[in-house]
Each structure stands twice: as structure tokens, then as C-alpha cells.
What we know:
The protein has 104 residues and is of the alpha+beta class. It has one domain (6-85). 12% of the residues lie in helices and 25% in strands. The longest helix is centred in the first third of the chain and has 9 residues, at 6-14.
Amino acid sequence: MELWDRKGFSKVGSTIGVPLFVDKLTEERRRTAYARMCIEVDTNCKFHKDVTVVLDQKKACTILVEYNWKPPRCTHCDVIGHTDKKCPSKPKNTEKGATVWLQR
């Protein structure tokens, strides 16, 4: 419960990205089994399964992290919203010897 306030949520969320807000049940401490946060992440976010938060010089805490949703990310053009398979800027591979029809 040491991290269960705005400062604590900010400290934990900052290890992942930019913390935006917590949900109403978390803020009102009506559900203390876990906290739900909305965090803005960079396109290169690794989505770690746990984060380590330093509480003071003698104490650190490892917190398990789950993600409700992970956006589709294209590693070819580094854009969120589509995957490599549907990347509009990726050149299309054609098989050797395949007939390609062009409209005149």
C-alpha cells in the first residue's frame, strides 16, 4: 500500500511510459487487489511483464504488469495501427517468374 497514491502510481507508471490516470475504483481504493492505469507508451515500448520501483536507498519493489490491450505495431515502418503483413510502405514480394499484370 506504500505506492497506493498519486505519487506512487506516477512512480510505477513512469517505468513504463507517461502515466495519464487511474480508473475510478483504483482512485477511490474500492479495489485494492490491483491497480488499473492508463499509460501513454512510446512506439518502441517492450511491454515488460514486471517493473522494479526503487522505494528508497535500501528497498526496491518488483511489480507484475498486465496489459489490457496492446496495439498492433509495424516493425517495418515503426507505426502503431497496422502490422508488418499489412504495411503500406513495405514493398510487395512477387515470386520469380510470376506473371504480373499491369493496366494500360
